[in-house]
């Protein structure tokens, strides 16, 4: 996911949330072509099968380590985000992880910046950007249509 | 035998990383900062463990440090004390005899209370991307 070029340009005046647009950069278009490959399609499916479904089915493994498994809300939101990204031919996130507090994080390590879309246990989404290993500003509420 | 509370700069530390949340990607050798998220019980710091050595045979091996309740198992991230101190981390001996972890230490900079501070976010990323020497495993509980 080239979140550096996420073009979160639209802002809802009532909620203050910024919305992801469908605009793509040249780099995104290139990766979109690659996404047609079956292997990439399988990787999208693997995120759903091996992570989201597994986390939903086996929350006990988190509890054993004093962690909180991803909540149903977080899993539903992550699934919707994956569907959105796939429909827009966005590149795969470099990783999808649980945060241990009921949320889910989409990581992007492709760009010089390290970026994360953090989905809280309540299903809220935030964009967090690090440059030179320093967090830039505050977590920014985002959403998609 | 050296004083167990004096932690020398050249000692290695182990941080157990559960496999289930996917905080370590073995294919790309990338560790996520979430591997250092303090849990609700981590009120005074996050847990690491001093490595067994010639000077400290009483501490646990990496295999022993990797044991835990998770059925999926664990990776172990390895750090050098001096590297952490140079970046301003505070490493404090906290032997946990009850749980059989005489080499238990705390990094007191990261606590449950301050976990969402920008400084804490930066520190977690520094640990994950800058200071980790290697990640070993996966290890499964025997």
Describe the structure.
The complex is a heterodimer of chains A (145) and B (142). With 145 residues, chain A is of the alpha+beta class. Helix content of chain A is 35%, strand content 25%. A seven-stranded mixed β-sheet of chain A has the order 1-2-7-6-5-4-3. In chain A, a hairpin with a 5-residue loop joins strand 5 and strand 6 (125-131). Residues 1-13 of chain A have low confidence and may be disordered. Chain B is α+β, with helices and mostly antiparallel strands and 142 residues long. Chain B is 17% helix and 25% strand. Chain B has three helices and eight strands; from the N terminus they run ββββαβαββαβ. In chain B, the strands form two sheets. Chain B has a six-stranded antiparallel β-sheet. A two-stranded antiparallel sheet of chain B has the order 2-3. In chain B, a hairpin with a 4-residue loop joins strand 2 and strand 3. The chains are: A alpha+beta (145), B alpha+beta (142). Chains A and B meet through helix 3, strand 3 and strand 7 of A and helix 3 of B.
* Main β-sheet description of chain B: 6 strands, antiparallel
Strand content of chain A: 15-25%
Low-confidence stretches of chain A: 1-13
Oligomeric assembly: heterodimer
**Secondary structure: number of strands of chain A:** 7
Topology, number of strands of chain B: 8
Q: Averaged pLDDT of chain A, please?
A: 82
Largest sheet of chain A: 7 strands, mixed
Rg of Cα set of chain A: 15 Å
Helix content of chain A: 25-40%
Given the helix and strand composition of chain B, which structural class is it?
alpha+beta
Sequence of strands across the biggest β-sheet of chain A: 1-2-7-6-5-4-3
How would the global form of chain A be characterised? globular
Euclidean distance between termini CA atoms of chain B: 30 Å
Which strand order do you get reading across the main beta sheet of chain B?
6-7-4-1-5-8
Put simply, the count of helices of chain A is 4
